[in-house]
Specification:
By secondary structure, this protein is of the alpha/beta class. 37% of the residues lie in helices and 21% in strands. The longest helix has 22 residues.
Length: 180
């Protein structure tokens, strides 16, 4: 077998493995930014305190992470699958000088460790909440707070619900607070 043929076969095998890896990561929600007024209400409902560790699952442009670090002085981490959104939000964190309190992980939510969290914020689809629920039940320590935006976690009972009639942009929202 010629070197060129061997190289071509190896490249095809690598490409197929990469494609399979890419297919195994499922996008859990479309990018739809949470209005700033709702972001603040989510963090207040979750009782976020200075120094607490919080994670935003599906962090998009990083607005929840940034507000958590900037206004609430929390140790904030976002997890975002989309590489461009992760880069954009990381750049914004750097431009605001928040690198010590805020960061974005570009990756799969299902492959992260959230056991250090005091608070999680989530704006995912109902089917996505159902997919990550077993992982969260295993990882989260007692007392961890979860604020879900618009969509509940099946089989979990919220300790509090907050309805927002108008977010300033003419849309209504419901927030659900859970405590593990």
């Amino acid at each position: 077998m010629r070197i060129g043929t061997i190289l071509a076969v190896a490249l095809c095998a690598c490409a197929a493995a990469f494609a399979q890896e890419a297919k195994s990561v499922e996008k859990l929600a479309p990018y739809y930014p949470t209005p700033e007024t709702v972001v603040e209400r989510m963090l207040k409902l979750g009782g976020l305190k200075a120094g607490e560790k919080m994670f935003d699952l599906g962090s998009g442009d990083g607005r929840i992470v940034i507000m958590a670090a900037e206004k609430f002085k929390a140790d904030a981490t976002g997890v975002e699958f989309d590489a461009d959104l992760a880069k954009e939000s990381s750049a914004r964190i750097r431009s605001l000088g928040l690198e010590k309190r805020a960061r974005i992980i570009q990756g799969d939510i299902a492959k992260q460790d959230f056991s250090s969290a005091a608070l999680l914020t989530v704006y995912l689809l109902p089917t996505s909440n159902s997919k990550i629920r077993p992982m969260l039940e295993k990882q989260l320590k007692p007392g961890t707070r979860i604020v879900a935006h618009d969509f509940t976690f099946q089989d979990w009972t919220p300790v509090k619900e907050e309805h927002i009639e108008d977010d300033g942009e003419g849309r209504s929202h419901t927030l659900y607070l859970y405590v593990r």
